[in-house]
Amino acid sequence: MKIFFTKTFVRDYRKLTREMQEAVDKQLDLLLSNSRHPSLNVKKMNDPRNIWEGRVTASHRFTFHMESDTYVLRRVGTHDTLKNP
Predict the structure, then answer these.
(1) Which of 5, 15, 31, 74 has the fewest CB atoms below 10 angstroms from its CB?
(2) How many domains does the chain divide into?
(3) What is the C-alpha separation between 67 and 71, in angstroms, rounded?
(4) Taking the complete model, does pTM exceed 0.90, yes or no?
């Protein structure tokens, strides 16, 4: 699998603290190597667009969808981010 970063994800990512960016980077590495890793807690959102969420920390999440062999990263941030995945 590969990763594609949307403009929205990049904008959200740049707003995070350096420490949170490092946590996101670690979790994205895990997503690529083992998408079923327990710390990711990946699950499908209740959204008709087939959007998934993954955990960064207890308070931060990232959202994505899949297109063939690519994870398309949509948003990253606090739980409020999940209101508009």
Answers:
(1) 15
(2) 1
(3) 7
(4) yes
Total count of residues recorded for the chain:
85
pLDDT in tens, 26-67: 999 999 999 999 999 999 999 888 999 999 999 999 999 999
Q: Is residue 84 part of a domain?
A: no
Model pLDDT, residue 51: 95
Is 29 among the domain residues? yes
Please state, in angstroms and as integers, the Cα–Cα distance from residue 72 to each residue in 18, 19, 58, following that order: 22, 23, 22
Residue 75 structural domain: 2-79
| Cα 59 to Cα 20, 29, 31, 33, distances in angstroms | 11, 19, 18, 23
